[in-house]
Every structure is written in C-alpha cells, then in structure tokens.
C-alpha cells in the first residue's frame, strides 16, 4: 500500500484504504494575529512572531477507518502536509521545514508542503454501514 497518499502522520500512521478523498486545511491559530486600532483609528499589528502557528483539519472518506485507536488529544504527531504553502522565489524562503521532494517552482513562486509538529486536539469517525463508507476528521494544532 506504499504511496497511497502524500500524507504522512508520524506517531499515528495512515492506515491502508483510509486515505482517499483527503482534504487538509491550514489556518493561523486564534492567537496568531493581534490587531488593534490606535486612538486615531489606524489598524496596527501587535502580533508576536512566536505565536505564528497553524491549526489544521484533515478529513477523509474511504473504505476503512484510520489508525486512531489510542490517539487522544495531546498526542504529538509529525505531519507531512498535503496542503501547500508558497512564497516569492526571488525574495522569500520557507518558514517551516519542507517535506523532502515537495518543493517546486512555478513562474515566480515556489510551492512546498510543510512538515509540522502538531498536537491532536480532536478527531471523529463516522461509518455508513450499508454504503461501506468511512468518513473521518483529525484536528491538530502546531506546537
């Protein structure tokens, strides 16, 4: 079942026949942006760089459930993301470790899949008995 998906979840694993129909979201954590208005009404950024972290939700729908037995909130996982980030090739650089072999240049932009160290915050599975379809989601937050 090698190469069934680009997703790698070190610490959990990706079970065979659980990885089709994968989607991943990446978004800043709630504390990443601290925007405030001055007394004159100008919007200013008071964000701390150490809070520039991601939250992610990975969802799938396949024939079998993922390897979630014994996985509880707080479990540390290294995620080789399926979601890509990009930056201007001439002036930028990746701000997260790059999944090996995932970097590519298109025009003036470089795209890559980040490798993130995250903690499980929640997960769920659902199964359609008659349709033999298993849906699942995994919620994570960067350490």
Fold blueprint:
Layout: E1 8-10, E2 23-28, E3 35-37, E4 43-45, E5 54-62, E6 76-80, E7 85-88, E8 104-106, E9 109-112, E10 115-128, E11 133-142
Antiparallel strand pairs: 1-6, 2-5, 3-4, 5-11, 6-10, 7-9, 8-9, 10-11
What does this structure look like?
The chain has 143 residues and is mainly beta. It has one domain. Helices cover 0% and strands 45% of the residues. It is built from no helices and eleven strands. The strands form three sheets. The chain has a six-stranded antiparallel beta sheet with strand order 1-6-10-11-5-2, with no helix packed on it. A three-stranded antiparallel beta sheet has the order 7-9-8, with no helix packed on it. Strand 3 and strand 4 form a beta hairpin. The protein is globular and about 60 Å long. The model has no long low-confidence stretch (mean pLDDT 93).
Summarize this entry quickly.
The protein has strands spanning 8-10, 23-28, 35-37, 43-45, 54-62, 76-80, 85-88, 104-106, 109-112, 115-128, 133-142.
